[in-house]
Amino acid sequence: MIILAIESSCDDTAAAVVKDGRTVLSSCVSSQIEMHTIYGGVVPEIASRKHIEAVYGLADQALSDAGLARTDLDAIAVTYAPGLIGAVLVGVNFAKGAAASLGLPLIPVHHVRGHIAANYITHPDLEPPFVCLCISGGTTAIVDVKSYTEMEIMGGTRDDAAGECFDKVARVLGIGYPGGAPMDRLSQGGDDRKYELPVAHVAGAELDMSFSGLKTASLNLIHNAQQKGEDLDLPAFAASFGRAVSDSLVPRAMAALQAKGYGKLAVAGGVAANSRIRSDLQAACAQSRDKLYLPELRYCGDNAAMIGCQGYYEYQAGHLAGLDLNAYATRDISLG
User: Fold this and answer.
1) In whole numbers, what is the pLDDT of the chain averaged over residues?
2) Could you tell me the maximum CA-CA distance found in the chain, to the nearest angstrom?
3) Which of 91, 141, 277, 322 reaches 20 to 30 Å from 63, CA-CA?
4) Where are the alpha helices (DSSP H) in 68-211?
5) Which among 111, 125, 122, 149 is positioned nearest to 264, based on CA atoms?
6) Which domains does the chain have, with CATH numbers?
7) 111-122 vs 305-316: helix axis angle to the nearest 10?
8) What span, in angstroms and rounded, lies between the C-alpha atoms of 77 and 2?
9) CA–CA dist 204, 327 (Å, integer)
């Protein structure tokens, strides 16, 4: 089954062609980072307009790269939630038009389910059930992946997402947007014990997390140093920050894994590219003898290949949509 997939939930327009949920025939991404960097973050109205400009040509490029024609397609898959509502609407409306004009089934895909499915591309042997740690700019959640389309959140952040904290701290430091990659590079060789940053615990919900305190403490540390004219050891600060984020994520992911007993832990989302988190998870799984699945770096960030992959399994489960499909800014992963 050959699926054309569209992704436009934030600031990347993406199109891909995926075969049978596991084989990527093409994957095209048009990034808006350079434009949004000027503002230190994503401007929703600009993102939506750029998606409109890019989506048609990108879909054609994905077909061309795959060596296929429109008549070779069996279905259209699209991210319909969650995300910036204007941005998501662009992809949904394009996908509805494509499905209607080509007479093809329309498959709605939850963005976070797509991130989880990125692991199926990198690891063809991976099958549910497993636990997945989903970490990105908008999501931080531990998900029980019971089947390809049956999922339940076991724990998550009560406030900020881990990726959002990386972005905000990097913006204040002036080292770039998005913040994950520059913070990771800056941390290399830094003393991760030099600055003690908080790791929150949520009473009565041991798998839940909170990052607002870490963000506030980090920003206060930066501002206090600036006001006093003191030099901040930037590599040490970035390393200490990365340790605090990892110390929030890794023990909870491992606790969830032990509670389920699946023996398989996957990681998904943009923050899954962070070297400290990947290293700590590898060490934890080596100690517990559980199997760890990490997506390739190119599939950690937003892309349409992951949407096409998950779209295949949604199709198999009969999860199709009509031309009345709407976009949603928020949507529970368990609802699909």
Assistant:
1) 95
2) 66
3) 322
4) 85-102, 111-122, 162-173, 180-187
5) 125
6) 2-115+299-335 (3.30.420.40), 127-297 (3.30.420.40)
7) 100
8) 10
9) 34
Helix (H, G, I), strand (E, B) or coil at 293: strand
Helix (H, G, I), strand (E, B) or coil at 79: strand
> Where do we find the tokens 């991210």?
79
Burial class (CB in 10 A: 0-12, 13-18, 19+), 125: exposed
**pTM for the full predicted model:** 0.94
CA 62 to chain centre: 21
Q: Which two tokens stand for residue 248?
A: 């929030």
Tokens at 321, concatenated: 């949509």
Distance of CA 16 to the CA centre of its chain: 17
* Rounded Cα distance, 179 and 186, in Å: 11
Alpha helices by DSSP H, listed for 178-304, are 180-187, 212-228, 234-260, 275-288
| Both tokens assigned to 293 | 């699945």
pLDDT tens, residue by residue, 35-93: 767 667 788 888 889 999 999 999 999 999 999 999 999 999 999 999 999 999 999 99
Per residue in 80-127, pLDDT (tens digit) is 999 999 999 999 999 999 999 999 999 999 999 999 999 999 999 999
